[in-house]
Amino acid sequence: MSQKTVIVYGAATLGQELVQTVATAGCDVILIDHSEEKLKRGLVRVEASLDAEIARWGLTTGEKRAIMSRIKSSTQVNDVTKGWLVIETLKETLEVKRQLFKELDAICKPETILASNSATISITEIAAECNHPQRTIAMHFQSPIAKVPLVEISRGLKTDEATYQAAVRFANMMRKTVISVYDCPGFVTTRIILPMINQAVKVLEEGIAPCEQIDTAMKLGFGLNAGPLALADKIGIDTVVFYLENLYTETFDQSYLPAKLLKKMARAGYKGVKSNRGFYRYGEDGLRTDNSGLKIEQLSQTNR
Amino acid sequence: MKVLVLNCGSSSIKYQLFDMTTTTVLAKGLVQRVGMAGSTIDYRKGDNGKKKVHECDVLDHKIGIAKIFELLTTGEDAVLKSLQELDAVGHRIVHGGDKFSSSVLLTDEVKKAIRDCIVFAPLHNPPNLKGVEAVEEILPNIRQVAVFDTAFHQTMKPEAYIYAIPYMFYEKHRIRRYGFHGTSHRYVASRAAQLLGKPLSELKLITVHLGNGCSICAIDKGHSVDTSMGHTPLEGLAMGTRCGDLDPALILHIMKQYELTISEMDNLLNKHSGVLGISQISSDLRDLEEDWPNKSERANLALDVYSHRIKKYIGAYMAVLNGCDAVIWTAGVGENSPIVRSIVHRDMSWLGVKLDVEKNEVTWRGAEGDITMPDSRVKVLVIPTNEELVIAQDTMECIS
C-alpha cells in the first residue's frame, strides 16, 4: 500500500482539490489534518465537487464510488509514514511550513518525498531545518487543481535528481504538464499574474473603470478565462496580499507592493469567494450573485 | 497444441487456454483491478468449471500474467505440467490502423506498428502492448500473434471509409472509418455459412454485434464492405452508454451552451448517453426489458431508439449489398434479447424478413439457430460469438 499511497497534509480548499485530483488519477490518498471537523468538511466538499462533475457529465456514479474508495482521512500526523510522497497545502507563511517540514523530516523515512504546494516561498528556506533536504521539493498545483493542467516544480538548492524525477513522474500521472524552475518563489505563473492583479486593483482605485469592465476588458482582450479581479476573489484577497508581500520581500520589486485597497479589503474580511464577498458577492455555492462588483465608495471614509 | 488467448485492458486481463488439438477450453478467467488496491484473479478449470477467486496484489500486467501462468501450472486445478507445454500466445489488439488486414506473428516491426496506432486507440492499444511485452519478458522464446479488431474491415472500399471532411485529414492523419468487433463479425459470418449450408463466397450477410459496444457489418462474399463503427467505437448504433450517430453540430452547440471541456463532452458522449442517457434507468438492456412494455415510457423509448437505429442500418446495408441472404444476431444483447430482435424485424416483410415469433422467444442463452418462418426470403440467425476461439485459431494458423 505504501508504494502507491500519497499523503495530502492540510484539509483546506487546496488540500481538498488535491485529494480529489490524486484519487481521480487512480492513486490511494490519505488526507491529514489535526482538526476532525475540517477533515469531515473537506471530504464532504470533495464529494460535492465530484457530484458537480457528474451533473455536468464529467464523471459517472461508478467512477465517483471508485474515487471515494481511494480516499482515507486521518488526524494522526504519524500516518504520513504510510505514503511515499507527502504534499503539504498549509497556509502560505514560512514559519508554518518550515515547522511542518522539520516535523515530517523527523517522522518520515529518508526516501519519502516531502513536497510543498507553496507558491511564493523558497523551498530551500522551507527545508532549512531538515536533516534530509535532498528529498524536499516544491510542487505548485494551481486552483482549481482538477481543471488546471499545469504543475510548476521548483527544485531547492539541495533537492536531488531522483526526487525531482519522481515529482515529474507523479505530476505526469496526474496528467499535468510540468514547468520546472530552480528555487524560485513565485515560479512563473504567480510571479507574472500578481502584478496584473495588483495593477487591476490600482486601476479600480483610481476610478478608471469599474470592476466588471476591468475584468471584461482583460477577458475579451487577451482571451483569459477570468478577469484579474474575479481571479483575486478566487485565490482569496488575503492570500493575494500574502503572496505579494512574500514576493516583495524576495525581489524588492515595486510592482509587488500590495495596492492599498487590497490590504483594506483583507482587513475588512472581504476575502473573496471564501467569505462570500470580495470584489464581487458570492452565494454559499461559490457562484457570483452580483454583476457590477465592489464600489470604491463602499470602502471610503465618507460612506462608512 | 496449447494456445493461450489474452485480452489485456487498462485494468483487466481476460484469459483463456485452449487445447487446439481437440478445440477445448482447458482453463479461463479474468484478472481485475490491475494496478489498483484489491486486485482479484478469477480462475475456472475447463469451460464450465467452478469459478475460484484469488485475491492478490497485481501492480501491473506483468505480475498479472505471471500469476495466470502460476495458476495454470501449479495447485490442484493446474492444467499444464509446465509452461514448456504452451505453444503460443494470441493477443486481442484493438487497433491495427490500415497496416493490418489479417492476424500476424508478433515481431519488433509489428509492435512498432501497434505503437504507431496508439493515437487511434489511446485507451486500448497501450495495455494490449503491455500484455505482449509482459509475456515476452516471462517467456522470451514463445511465439505470439496479434489479432486485430480492425483487420476484418480493411476490405472496405474508399467510398465506405472516407469521411466527407477535408481530404487532408485522411492523407496526413489517416482519419477514416476503421470499424471494430472484426473478429466477431468474421466468426459469426463463417458460422452462418455453415448453418445455411452454402459457401461464404455466395452469401450476402448482415451481422449485428450487440454487446457493451454495438456494431453492424455488411459482408459480401465473406468480405466486410461497410460497418457502423468509425474511426472510433463511438459511431453508429446507439449503445449502452454511447450515443452512436449524432448531428456533429450538436457537439459544438452543447459544449458552447454548457461551457463543457473536451473531457466532459467526451464523457457525455461515451458514458452518459445511449440507452442510459435516454432512460436514465440503466445502461443494461435487461433492466429496461424487465416487465416490458409496462416498465416505463422512457424505458420503452430507449429500447425503441436503440432498435430503430439497428433497423435503419439493416435497410441501408441491404441497399449497399444489393440483397441479403441472412441477418445474424450475436453478442450479449444480440444473443439474448428477443424483444429487441422483434422490434427490429417487425414490419420488415417487404424486405423479405418474416420472423417466427415463437422461435425468436426461445432462442437465447447460448442457443443457436434460425428464427424465421420457412418462407422467409431473408433468414435471421442467432449465433453466439466466440472471439477467443477465433484468436486461438488465428494464432495456430500464424505459427504453422
What does this 3D model show about the protein?
The complex is a heterodimer of chains A (304) and B (400). Chain A is an alpha/beta fold and 304 residues long. Chain A has two domains: 6-180, NAD(P)-binding Rossmann-like Domain (Rossmann fold, 3-Layer(aba) Sandwich), CATH 3.40.50; 189-297, N-(1-d-carboxylethyl)-l-norvaline Dehydrogenase, domain 2 (Orthogonal Bundle). Chain A is built from eleven helices and eight strands. Chain A has helices at residues 13-24, 36-55, 61-69, 94-107, 123-126, 161-173, 189-205, 211-222, 228-235, 237-251, 260-268, and strands spanning 6-9, 29-32, 71-74, 85-88, 113-116, 136-141, 150-155, 177-182. Chain A has an eight-stranded mixed sheet, with helices on both faces. Chain A starts with 5 loop residues before the first strand and ends in a 36-residue tail after the last helix. Chain B has 400 residues and is of the alpha/beta class. In chain B, 38% of the residues lie in helices and 20% in strands. An eight-stranded mixed sheet of chain B has the order 5-4-3-2-1-6-8-7, sandwiched between helices. In chain B, helix 1 crosses helix 3 (125-138). Chain B is globular, with a radius of gyration of 21 Å. The mean pLDDT of chain B is 95.
Q: Which SSEs are present, and which pair or pack?
A:
The complex is a heterodimer of chains A (304) and B (400).
Chain A: E1 6-9, H1 13-24, E2 29-32, H2 36-55, H3 61-69, E3 71-74, E4 85-88, H4 94-107, E5 113-116, H5 123-126, E6 136-141, E7 150-155, H6 161-173, E8 177-182, H7 189-205, H8 211-222, H9 228-235, H10 237-251, H11 260-268
Parallel strand pairs in A: 1-2, 1-4, 2-3, 4-5, 5-6, 7-8
Antiparallel strand pairs in A: 6-7
Helix pairs in contact in A: 1-2, 7-9, 7-10, 10-11
Chain B: E1 2-8, E2 12-19, E3 24-32, E4 40-45, E5 52-55, H1 61-73, E6 86-93, E7 104-105, H2 108-116, H3 125-138, E8 143-148, H4 158-161, H5 168-173, H6 182-196, E9 204-210, E10 214-220, E11 223-227, H7 248-258, H8 262-271, H9 274-279, H10 285-289, H11 297-321, E12 326-330, H12 331-336, H13 338-345, H14 357-362, E13 369-370, E14 379-382, H15 387-399
Parallel strand pairs in B: 1-6, 6-8, 9-12, 12-14
Antiparallel strand pairs in B: 1-2, 2-3, 3-4, 4-5, 7-8, 9-10, 10-11, 13-14
Helix pairs in contact in B: 1-3, 11-13
